[in-house]
């Protein structure tokens, strides 16, 4: 199938180079760790700094998952979420070693960086530091951090990729094909 595409000069499907995606995951991780360290050092727990009419920097702690899910579960959730994050991270790291479609590689890298950032926070602190607080008319979205942004953006990319139509390469007519090769190709089929 792909042999025909390569034989007639059609480029192979766009694939990601693994090192590039590991670097993206590490960038997300470093931005997350650095920003959480800055918030923890420069702001007291519970502090809020209004920056606009709809955005504050806050110093919040989350012992649960998204939207503080299981935050008051008694402590076991810390180990559960650490284990889950490291298992998912190991799987993502192994996936990133493969030649993935570019959109998948973006998604996996962002999720990997975010999962590791929050896992490191839970491991070292026992909670995740959140600091981005958006609000409107007295309603506040739950505070979040760079790791959460990476995870959500990665998940959105996976949804987008799952909605993209797939094309069967064996049914595609190569674009860069000479007339002689086209005739040869059509006579083989008959």
TrEMBL record:
Q: Which GO terms describe its cellular component?
A: plasma membrane
Alphabetically, the GO molecular function entries are: aspartic-type endopeptidase activity
Q: Which UniProt keywords apply?
A: Aspartyl protease, Cell inner membrane, Cell membrane, Hydrolase, Lipoprotein, Membrane, Protease, Transmembrane, Transmembrane helix
Reactions catalysed according to its record: Release of signal peptides from bacterial membrane prolipoproteins. Hydrolyzes -Xaa-Yaa-Zaa-|-(S,diacylglyceryl)Cys-, in which Xaa is hydrophobic (preferably Leu), and Yaa (Ala or Ser) and Zaa (Gly or Ala) have small, neutral side chains
Describe which pathway this protein belongs to, using the record's wording: Protein modification; lipoprotein biosynthesis (signal peptide cleavage)
Report the active site residues.
130, 148
* Location of the protein in the cell: Cell inner membrane
Membrane topology is: Multi-pass membrane protein
Q: Which domain of life is it from?
A: Bacteria
Query: Mind telling me which residue stretches traverse the membrane in this protein?
Result: 21-45, 76-94, 103-120, 140-160
Give the principal location in a single coarse category: membrane
- Mind telling me which HAMAP family this protein's record contains? LspA
Family label:
Belongs to the peptidase A8 family.
State the protein's purpose.
Answer: This protein specifically catalyzes the removal of signal peptides from prolipoproteins.
Matching PANTHER family: LIPOPROTEIN SIGNAL PEPTIDASE
Designated name of the protein? Lipoprotein signal peptidase
Lineage of the native species? Bacteria, Pseudomonadati, Pseudomonadota, Betaproteobacteria, Burkholderiales
